[in-house]
């Protein structure tokens, strides 16, 4: 056996110091590995050949990755990005990818926010001024009440507070005082419930080339101008470095290479077509659908577990649910009605998939069958953590102020509940005012306390991971409550499968 290090990520500033004659690109790794199955030479020789003949390597990538559809070859090339000045709302679209990616965000638990936010370009000048006033109100709640919330955490966690003070007395710096940081972190997490989804974030982002390409294509047709701008900037900084691996993002280069037009209809039209299709179905059914094919369900708190395995109806219901504001139960009723005959069912799926091309994956709704299905009503703060569990199907409706707000107990305890509710109410009022003008962009007005419906389909292995992480004693209370509700229901559905579930701190017990 021989193991050779083929390459690794290094800082772009170091790459820039290479001699001018050097063409530094991860494409050579992909090209070399793509040839392994058909070339008798050893892998190090293939890599050497690719490094010495970059243009040949790029042609090889185009032929193998796209000509032969061996897209996994592109996964050998990895890219790292510093992302700054992005809103929490746009970040949700960026982090929708689950495979071939890594995200590390600047934590709102450990960093005191300074009130930075983005102003949507969709808004008129007058509405921007109104929006800025709302965000200032939201930020002032955070800034003015953070110390009160810290004091509350010290008072309600005396053991931890004593350890924090002891550490300080011993000369341990605030940065290294783990107990102090935990108490202050809890306070910061609760204070942020008043903050806007326009609040700026920073992160380190890593994508393999296949995931990068998909992200650029998907976000290019986002309803948010900010996300479309992000797509273009990701393309701009990588197109010269690895053009052969992201060719599906460049219609001009694609046509030059393959003498045919790039089919982007799926990214352009599928989602909006699904919304129109679902709107038409809901309008035409007018509540006249049978109740005799409802999924069995059990509920606990903000979680509903659906127990059924009719694949066609499940996927159809997911398509309806994710493109409307209906509950899953109502979506399932309509799906049962629409799939009542084979002819109607074929028509439904034919319309849903009319823009799919051979380069495209099916809509994510098609993952929703066979696993445990939950409908959750979660705050934006809760969702920010839930969405990080990427090896499951996570279908989120738009934010809906009618679902109410999530208020941290600490804020109630120090008599700030009414103040936060007033901020949420004013945020909701401006959201509804802007909704007819700006559609999704109106969500920038909402806070982390606002809620949305989420449909989750998760296999038992991933649900165990959620349990270990989110039922642990160190987990944030909001996501912990949701995880406990989900596992309570899962244990009823499959008590033997989940007999060892629970937070990692409880595992030995």
Describe the protein.
It is a single chain. It is built from 20 helices and eight strands. It is an alpha+beta fold and 509 residues long. The chain has a five-stranded antiparallel beta sheet with strand order 4-5-6-8-7, with helices on both faces. Helix 9 runs antiparallel to helix 10 (225-238). The mean pLDDT is 88.
Question: Between the first and last Cα atoms, what is the distance in angstroms?
Answer: 43 Å
User: What percent of residues adopt helix (DSSP H or I)?
Assistant: 40-55%
Q: In order across it, which strands form the biggest sheet?
A: 4-5-6-8-7
Strand content: 5-15%
Q: What do the pLDDT scores average to?
A: 88
Are there runs of 5+ residues with pLDDT below 50, and where?
A: none
Biggest β-sheet, characterized? 5 strands, antiparallel
With helices defined by DSSP (H or I, 4 residues minimum), what is the helix count? Answer: 20
Backbone shape: globular
Q: Which quaternary structure do these chains form?
A: single chain
SS elements, strand count: 8
Output the radius of gyration.
25 Å
Structural class: alpha+beta
- SSE ordering: HHHHEHEHHHEHHHHEEHHHEHEHHEHH
């Amino acid at each position: 056996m021989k193991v050779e290090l083929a390459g690794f990520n290094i800082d772009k500033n170091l790459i820039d110091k290479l001699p001018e004659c050097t063409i530094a690109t991860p494409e050579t790794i992909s090209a070399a590995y793509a040839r392994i199955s058909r070339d008798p030479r050893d892998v190090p020789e293939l890599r050497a050949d690719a490094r010495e003949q970059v243009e040949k390597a790029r042609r090889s990538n185009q032929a193998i990755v796209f000509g032969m559809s061996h897209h996994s070859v592109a996964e050998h090339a990895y890219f790292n990005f510093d992302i700054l000045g992005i809103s929490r709302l746009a970040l949700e679209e960026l982090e929708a990818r689950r495979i071939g990616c890594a995200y590390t965000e600047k934590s709102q638990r450990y960093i005191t926010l300074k009130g930075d936010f983005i102003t949507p370009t969709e808004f008129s000048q007058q509405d921007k001024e109104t929006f800025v006033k709302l965000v200032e109100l939201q930020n002032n709640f955070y800034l003015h009440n953070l110390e009160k919330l810290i004091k509350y955490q010290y008072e309600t966690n005396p053991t931890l507070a004593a350890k924090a003070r002891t550490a300080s007395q011993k000369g341990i710096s605030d940065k290294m005082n783990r107990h102090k940081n935990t108490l202050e972190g809890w306070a910061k997490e609760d204070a942020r419930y008043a903050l806007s989804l326009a609040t700026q974030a920073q992160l380190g982002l890593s994508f393999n080339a296949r995931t990068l390409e998909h992200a650029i294509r998907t976000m290019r047709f986002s309803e948010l101008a900010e996300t479309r701008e992000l797509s273009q900037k990701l393309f701009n900084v990588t197109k010269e470095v690895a053009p052969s691996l992201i060719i599906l993002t460049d219609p001009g280069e694609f046509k030059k290479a393959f003498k045919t037009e790039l089919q982007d209809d799926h990214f352009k039209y599928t989602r909006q077509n699904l919304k129109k299709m679902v709107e038409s179905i809901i309008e035409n059914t007018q509540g006249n659908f049978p109740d005799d094919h409802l999924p069995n369900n059990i509920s606990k708190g903000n979680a509903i577990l659906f127990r059924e395995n009719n694949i066609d109806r499940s996927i159809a219901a997911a398509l309806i649910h994710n493109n409307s504001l209906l509950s899953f139960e109502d979506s399932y009723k309509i799906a049962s009605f629409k799939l009542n005959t084979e002819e109607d069912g074929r028509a439904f799926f034919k319309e849903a998939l009319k823009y799919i091309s051979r380069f495209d994956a099916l809509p994510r709704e098609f993952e929703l069958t066979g696993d445990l299905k939950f409908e959750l009503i979660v705050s934006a703060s809760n969702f920010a953590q839930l969405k990080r569990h990427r090896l499951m199907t996570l279908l989120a409706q738009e934010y809906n102020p009618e679902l109410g707000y999530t208020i941290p107990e600490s804020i109630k305890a120090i008599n700030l509940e009414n103040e936060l509710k007033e901020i949420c109410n004013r945020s909701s009022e401006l959201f509804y005012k802007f909704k007819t003008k700006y559609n999704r962009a109106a969500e920038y007005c909402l806070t982390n306390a606002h809620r949305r419906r989420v449909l989750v389909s998760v296999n038992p292995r991933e649900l165990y991971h959620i349990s270990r992480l989110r039922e642990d004693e160190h987990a944030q209370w909001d996501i912990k409550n949701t995880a406990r509700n989900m596992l309570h229901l899962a244990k009823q559905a499959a008590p033997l499968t989940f007999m060892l579930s629970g937070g990692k701190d409880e595992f030995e017990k």
